[in-house]
Amino acid sequence: MGNKKSRIKTSWLKKEIRQLYPAPCPEKKEDFLREFSYPAASKWEVIQIQMGYIRKSVWILSLLLVGAVLAAGESGWWSGTSYDVLWRLSGIMPILAVLVVTETFRSSVYGMAEMEMAAKHYLPQVLLIRMGIIGTVDFLLILLGIPFVVKEGTVGIFRTLVYLLAPYLCTCALSLQIQKCQRGRDTLWSCICCGLLVSGMNLISRIIQDKIYDIGIFYLWICGLLLLVCFLYRQMKQILHGMEEWEWNLYLTE
Q1: Is the Cβ–Cβ distance between 42 and 83 less than 8 Å?
Q2: Distance separating alpha carbons of residues 186 and 207, to the nearest angstrom
Q3: 158, 136 in Cβ contact below 8 A?
Q4: How far apart are CA 217 and CA 215, in angstroms?
Q5: Which residues have CB under 8 Å from 116's CB, separation 6+?
Q6: Per-residue model confidence (pLDDT) at position 40
Q7: Which of these, 140, 136, 141, 120, lies nearest to 45 by C-alpha position?
Q8: What's the Rg (C-alpha) of the chain?
Q9: Angle of CA points 130, 136, 141, to nearest 5°
């Protein structure tokens, strides 16, 4: 508890010092960068580099989670209606979301953010690229699971996509807020607890899943999904532009 108070006090002092003694803007910085000759990496090269940075265990775990649920359903062990398959897939969406956020901010969790800042690429852009790569793969996995839900014709493709994206984006938004307010390895456990909470709420909802997935309240799902998309967009915009509330997490060290 004392260490946490000390870190907060140190962070506050650093923030106050930056405000009282702001660093002078470098003169002719843009002219220097334009004239400086160095091999610039293309966007695709940056993406390839970040793909290599992401741990293989993240890809393997994501594939195993989705594959296990779908394989169990097809084998008859977890056979049931379309709503049952949808419920099971929804239960693992928060776990995939936790993997996205924790892997994206891994350098911050382990106190290595300053090392990444020394690279030539802007750290917030790198983090969003990393998040986009894992998020794209997760979206493909979601699309992979849709045919297993809609094959009976009870639930349509669009509805299934909304039902699966809602818990995924909800967990992403909550985990990003945790990253915004906490630092160090505590954020890892907080994000895991957040994912388990959302997943647990989904598991409990099975007793009323017919009401939750009723077409009559589908508009509420759409409204909630749109709110989550707007909130996530705001969070990513703040990260990209290095807003003050995110600087505490991205740039300050222990």
Answers
A1: no
A2: 33
A3: no
A4: 6
A5: 107, 123, 126
A6: 58
A7: 120
A8: 21
A9: 130
Q: Give all strands (DSSP E) within 152-242, no chain letters.
A: none
Q: What is the pLDDT of residues 206-233, one digit of tens each?
A: 777 778 888 888 999 999 999 999 999 9
Residues 6+ positions from 60 with CB-CB distance below 8 Å: none
Residue with token string 């989904």? 202
Q: CA–CA separation, 67 vs 167, rounded Å?
A: 19
Assessment of whether the complete model's pTM goes beyond 0.70: yes
Residue 200 vs residues 51, 136, 142: alpha-carbon distances, Å: 31, 25, 19
Q: Please, which residues have CB within 8 angstroms of residue 129's CB and are 6 or more apart in sequence?
A: 46, 47, 50
Rounded percentage of the chain residues whose pLDDT exceeds 90 = 17
pLDDT bucket at 253, cuts 50 / 70 / 90: very low
Would the pLDDT of 52 be above 60?
yes
Helix axes 157-181, 82-104, angle to 10 degrees: 30
